C-alpha cells in the first residue's frame, strides 16, 4: 500500500490542487478544488481514482471556490478546514465576484478539522495540523509514510503565506510553521498552495521568514 498524489494547478491564481489516493484501494480525495472542476474530475478518471471526499486547507476563493459545486454534483463530503474559517466560506460569493472567478457556492463542511485529527484516504491515514496565521482556520494534511505534507498557503518555497487578509497574523503564522510543521522532520516534502515543492529542511536553512537563526 502506498500513498500517491498528482498536483493540478487551477484558476488564474495557478493554485496547486491535488488529487490524492491510496494505490491499493484507488480511493481518493481532491485537496483544495479552487476551480476548473471538469479538469479535476477528468484527471481523477484518467488516474483511475474514485473520488470519495473533498479536503480543504482553508477557504480562500482560489482553494475553495469549486468546493460547493463539486460536492453537490458528485455527492462528496467536505472535510475541513477548521471552523474559524466559516466567515471565509460565507464570503465565497463575494470573493468570486471580487476576483473575477465563476460564481462560488457557500457550503457547510461535513466535518470540521482540529489539530491532531486524522483523515482516512483508502488505507492511508493523513494527520491534521491546525496552522493559523494565513487564515485562522487553516489546516495542513501530513501523510507520514510518504513524508508528504499539503500545506496550502502556510509555507512556500522561499516564502510564507500572506497575513494582510482579515484575521491573518504574521507572528501566528511563523509560530504555526515552527511549532507544527518543523517537528514533522526536515525530510518532509511539502506541496504548497502555489509554486514548486520544497522540503521543510530546505526552508529551515534558507527561507528568509522562518529559517533557523543561531541563538
UniProtKB/TrEMBL annotation:
The keyword Repeat does not apply. Keywords: Hydrolase, Metal-binding, Zinc. InterPro entries: MBL_Glyoxalase_II, Metallo-B-lactamas, RibonucZ/Hydroxyglut_hydro. Residues 202-215 have a biased composition (Basic and acidic residues). Signal peptide: none annotated. Residues 195-215 are annotated as: Disordered. Residues 14-194 form the Metallo-beta-lactamase domain. Pfam families: Lactamase_B. Its cofactor is Zn(2+). This is MBL fold metallo-hydrolase.
Amino acid at each position: 500500500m502506498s500513498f500517491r498524489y498528482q498536483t493540478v494547478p487551477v484558476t488564474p491564481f495557478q493554485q496547486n490542487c491535488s488529487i490524492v489516493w491510496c494505490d491499493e484501494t484507488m480511493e481518493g480525495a481532491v485537496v483544495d478544488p479552487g476551480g476548473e472542476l471538469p479538469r479535476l474530475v477528468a484527471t481523477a478518471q484518467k488516474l483511475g481514482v474514485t473520488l470519495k471526499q473533498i479536503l480543504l486547507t482553508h477557504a480562500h476563493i482560489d482553494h475553495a471556490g469549486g468546493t460547493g459545486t463539486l460536492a453537490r454534483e458528485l455527492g462528496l463530503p467536505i472535510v475541513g478546514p477548521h471552523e474559524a474559517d466559516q466567515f471565509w466560506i460565507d464570503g465565497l460569493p463575494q470573493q468570486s465576484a471580487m476576483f473575477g472567478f465563476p460564481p462560488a457556492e457557500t457550503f457547510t463542511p461535513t466535518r470540521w478539522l482540529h489539530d491532531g485529527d486524522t483523515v482516512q484516504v483508502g488505507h492511508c491515514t493523513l494527520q491534521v495540523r491546525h496552522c493559523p496565521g494565513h487564515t485562522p482556520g487553516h489546516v495542513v494534511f501530513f501523510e507520514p509514510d510518504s513524508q508528504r505534507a499539503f500545506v496550502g498557503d502556510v509555507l512556500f518555497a522561499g516564502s510564507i503565506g500572506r497575513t494582510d487578509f482579515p484575521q491573518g497574523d504574521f507572528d501566528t503564522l511563523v509560530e504555526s510553521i515552527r511549532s507544527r510543521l518543523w517537528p514533522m522532520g526536515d525530510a518532509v516534502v511539502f506541496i504548497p498552495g502555489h509554486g514548486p515543492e520544497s522540503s521543510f529542511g530546505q526552508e529551515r536553512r534558507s527561507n528568509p521568514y522562518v529559517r533557523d537563526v543561531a541563538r
